[in-house]
Amino acid sequence: MHSSSRTRLAAALLALLMLAWHAGASAAAYAYSYMSVFGLVIRNPTGATSLISNIDLSRTTATLNGSSIINGGSNEIDAPQAARGAVTKGQNDFSQQGMGSAAYARGEAQIVSSQIPPFPPGSTSTQAVNAAETFLAGSGSADASGSNGSSTAMAVNFVVGQPGATLAFDFRALPFMQLYLDAAAGAGSAATTNMALTFTIIDENGQIVFNWAPDGKLGSGILGGSELADAASLNTGYTQTPLTSGSMFSYDPGGCGTPTGTGIGTTCGGQYGAVTDNLIAGSYTLVLHILNSSELAYVPRTTPIPLPGTLPLLAAGLAALASLAPRRHR
Q1: What is the pLDDT of residues 66-109, one digit of tens each?
Q2: Which residues of 139-169 are buried (b: 16+ CB within 10 A; e: fewer)?
Q3: For residue 248, how many other CB atoms are within 10 A of its CB?
Q4: Three-state SS across 191-253?
Q5: Cβ neighbours of 294 (radius 10 Å)
Q6: Does the N-terminal peptide bond of residue 117 adopt cis geometry, omega within 30 degrees of 0?
Q7: CA 252 from chain center: how many Å?
Q8: Which residues of 9-21 are buried (b: 16+ CB within 10 A; e: fewer)?
Q9: Predicted structure pTM score
Q10: Distance (Å, rounded) from C-alpha 41 to C-alpha 37?
């Protein structure tokens, strides 16, 4: 064989070997956190309350490799989607974009309806939905969040024969999370998802008199009241590191599956309920906070690790290269 032919063949085999060697080292990290709260009704079973003021808040954030955006804020009910990178989902589409070929980060949040004050006019319950989704197709970092909430100031009054007033909360919620970190991730890599939902009542002296953070365990996660229903934890998070990488993790406690369509669903979800202890006469503030977030960091391994199926290819390629080496004449 001519030397030029040997050179071309050697180069082709070397390229094939490099492809095989790096086949198992393609970077991928993914995180998606979603929660829909719907049918939220706040009642006043005993005593009497009167509304003083209400401030709604909807906020979204997204960061990809240091480039950030923050949208929304106080007195907003539908923050514009925060997007960085190859985002293909439109405004108020909370369903998954999923893993692809280009990195992105997006945060989405919307208060669909509100009981206090009625929005749109005539609303008798609250629905709010959040999503945070991030994907890396290579080394880098990304994070996103979607949050909704409200701060409602109220006055609580005595009723003759009653020791105070109470507030009761009833709603349904659909939580869902997924995260993935591939096996080629090196030290410093992590995929994280979080969600949180809390109801807090603060008195005029700044003291917390009621706090409820559903955790999937009836009777726990509550202060200053009684829990009536707690289908699954709405205050939880998960992390994958190189020690646990290589498989997709899903949090779907209600078995509702991946959110579809716009992601705003009211047909599947668990039941939640709680009632406060008696509130003495005075001024109070009720704070509702809902948050979903995701965060990624990807650092490739220093030495790529070939997939098992590439080992025979490596061996064959090395043998072919060895056969092309010039033989020494005696």
Answers
A1: 999 999 999 999 999 999 999 999 999 999 999 999 999 999 99
A2: bbbbbbbbbbbbbbebebeeeeeeebbbbbb
A3: 11
A4: EEEEEEEEEEEEECCCCEEEEECCECCCCCCEECEEEEEECCECCEEEEECCCCCCCCEEECC
A5: 31
A6: yes
A7: 13
A8: eeeebeeebeebb
A9: 0.84
A10: 11
